[in-house]
Specification:
Two copies of one chain form a homodimer.
Chain A (H helix, E strand, L loop, with lengths): L2 E6 L5 H11 L7 E6 L5 H18 L4 E4 L4 H9 L3 E4 H13 L16 H16 L14 E5 L5 H12 L3 E5 L24 E5 L2 H11 L8 H18 L3 E3 L5 H12 L6
Amino acid sequence: MTRTAFFISDGTGITAETLGRSLLAQFENLEIRMVTKPYIDNIDKAQSLAEVIQATAIRDGEQPIIIDTIVDENVRKIISSAPGFKVDIFSTFLAPLEDELATHSTYTVGRTHSIGRDDVYMNRIDSVHFALDNDDGARTHQYDKADIILIGVSRCGKTPTSLYLALQFGIRAANYPLTEDDQDEDGTLKLPRALMPHRHKLFGLTIDVRRLAAIRSERRPNSRYCSMDQCMQEIQQAEALYRQMHIPYIDTTRFSVEEISTRMIAEAGLNRRF
Amino acid sequence: MTRTAFFISDGTGITAETLGRSLLAQFENLEIRMVTKPYIDNIDKAQSLAEVIQATAIRDGEQPIIIDTIVDENVRKIISSAPGFKVDIFSTFLAPLEDELATHSTYTVGRTHSIGRDDVYMNRIDSVHFALDNDDGARTHQYDKADIILIGVSRCGKTPTSLYLALQFGIRAANYPLTEDDQDEDGTLKLPRALMPHRHKLFGLTIDVRRLAAIRSERRPNSRYCSMDQCMQEIQQAEALYRQMHIPYIDTTRFSVEEISTRMIAEAGLNRRF
């Protein structure tokens, strides 16, 4: 029997969904279908959604969980008339916060401090373009402007991490691939020359051999590039380099991009721009 | 007088920060300094942070707001000994949810359903590389695989939005620039030929003329490219094309990338992959 959870908002739904997923993740034995419903910002949309909730309750044989950040009072009334176990984020926390802060809240629809601000917008654009211009070792002459330089073997997660750092935190992240071109005659991987002046900005990525082989074989099936031998050799060389040069590194296998990025920020002591 | 809010977690801090920013955004008259402290996952880190909170309370002359998703009981005890107005997300909501779901929660550290899952990881990598390969009209032969194709003038926000859609929702977004190359002899912008078979996937972006001129002049100061005349002409042509072809569009000026992306998903009825 699967239960349903609705994350409902008259804004983006990001707050309701983020909190909802965190709370429900604490019940890992239950299978819960999760549905996000953003921009429920008028009576018509609220009524349609209330009908969907009603139908879901009948289908599931149990009332849905409803986690919301609806600000509009009329919308809120309609949703609260639908059958459900309600986790009302704003009304739970805003009243005590109003007391503590000795002021009334403005209940702006879906508005948060971080959204729509000019400095955030500009920093995001700049950081995303920095990450793109400096992706995969394409350029190295802007490394003095980089906040961090990610290194690792091909397809270990450098690009998504660089972009997440840019979009979410305004951090300027370059990335540079470790390849056989930088091996010694005896097969030992050396720190590429372009990275030497920036050693203090380097952060390594590593990955489980099987995961890497699977990712690479989606791109180039049955190639040497995706063979277990090749993947293992590259990863061992990369990790040996990190240890020898005292470069901090993280294994991306067990972590999401969110976790990799926030761990890097914490470990490298990076300053977020928002 | 500025007050301080701490968003504290033994995981990424994303839930505490997201909820905290949403709540505090409802008090827009107050200036609140916001500090996120992720990975507070042992006694030592907790004790250092408790000292920081103590010092902040003295400096501000008021107790900080503390919004946390700490799971570890020992860490939680230390933080709760520091002076602060506490908004305890888990203990507020998990007990009632445990009753409703008739089961105990597992209180896994920072674990959410969406994190570390293999399908999320693969979909993210694929979608990010799709967005990069299909950025700025670089290719058009993969448009049959695109979930959505963003169009708009240069620097109106296509690339950051495509990447956000990829990272956050696993949506495959291509983007294509509208330029003077696609103008008629009489100066009217026509739908580029490569986009014609995919009209139903198009979503337009537009932007305020002054904002566009400011963004462009950071890139190429004192150029025709960044002049108000040029920006206005391009934007008018683009909007005329959207209206004529019944292409849905959104003004990126007033919205964050989160809002633009989630509105597109809602309006275009896109299916998120996670």
